[in-house]
Amino acid sequence: MNKRFDERWTCEGDWTPAVSRRALLGGGALAAVWWAARGTALADLSLGDQPDPTGDLLVVVFLRGGADGMNMVAPVGADAYHRARPTLALARATDRTAPKADRVLDLDGFFGLNPAMGPLLPLYREGRLGFVHACGSGDHTRSHFEAMAAMERGNENIRGGIASGWLARHLDARPQKGASPLRAVAFSSVMPDSLRGATSAMALESLADFRLRLPEGPENRGGRLRQTLTRLYQDQLRDPIVDAGVETFKLLETLNRLDPAHYKPESGAAYPDSELGRGLRQVAFLAKARVGLEVAFLDRGGWDTHVAQGSSTGYMALGLTDVSDSLAAFAKDLGPALDRTTVVVMTEFGRRLQENSGLGTDHGRGSVMTVLGGGTQGGRVHAKWPGLEPHELDEVGDLRVTTDYRDVLAEILDKRVRSTNLAAVFPGHTPKALGVVQ
Length: 438
Fold this sequence. Notes:
Layout: H1 3-10, H2 21-26, H3 29-34, E1 57-63, H4 69-72, E2 73-74, H5 79-84, E3 105-106, E4 112-113, H6 121-125, E5 129-136, H7 144-152, H8 166-173, E6 184-187, E7 201-204, H9 221-234, H10 240-258, H11 275-289, E8 295-300, H12 315-334, E9 341-347, E10 367-373, E11 381-382, E12 403-404, H13 405-417, H14 422-425
Parallel strand pairs: 1-8, 1-9, 5-11, 5-12, 6-7, 6-8
Antiparallel strand pairs: 2-4, 3-4, 5-10, 9-10
Helix pairs in contact: 11-12
């Protein structure tokens, strides 16, 4: 907090409302007290009358560490899959020799869903969830850092391209007058590269961080300060700073009235008590509060499974259960609002086909993207399947990438989010139609 401002409360007794707005601004005090959230751009924005965004709310979940797509949506119809993974392979749904708990949940007779992802099966069968397999970037380094950087920047690989994030370019390509301070939110301790460069995005770990922090003390000092600040801004001639202050108070009042800390999900939705579950719960809250949220970004780490990966149970299955329970609760909680929401789950690369001596898998290439929402052409595994026989793998034995991840994202932006300038979001890339969403 600004030292001068703080001293007035801690050392000088009662704060007098006779101070002028200009005096506050001159001391930089208001900017300091406005927001407890770090690194926010709120002071530069105004809420305005908040119409719903013209397109879907876009929710991006990034699985960091390189999730094994072949253990998520397993190609159990391929003999090579079972030969390469004598320990880790999931059993076919029709394999009566295997325990039922180890058999996949059949998707289309060739691909099967890991049993740990069972909560997503109803959404798949309803046609609201689909998968894109053998999907990835053009990065061949198999380096987490480089592969994530390429994807979050919307590039083919780490070489060349531009440094800003693809979501940032999407937001900047369609600036909106009076855009919400909560237009784009990353539930993270740091701003992800996907939103890096955006002027209208913030990173916070909890909506509890998003509040006006007022001093405690006798005689309702905090309440009096709030009233005084509100009056100061309401009584002044309007300019961008005044507008920001007024709209900021409106937003705070909205959030205080709706009380995110005590938000109750609808339809009996039960989010797991995990970072992802808590994050999606807050996204649902913001979506229903109609505060102008357009983009939400969430991370979920723990996918670098070099050892003891497990298959239907074990370390990776625990992660899949968390992701699946979180997404299923989110869809249930949103209810009809899911028709105006698109969720995409992505990872920087997949894992090698052959299991290693540590009963895990090493860095590979092709993986799976998951798409959920009312506009999803779901109930399908979208794939130009390259095959898993030795002559069908890439030069080091990995699943080939046959679908560029940017084609999936571009189609979502175009058809669901109503992005108006894909060339700015993915410069140099000509998207191909996939039919993943309509």
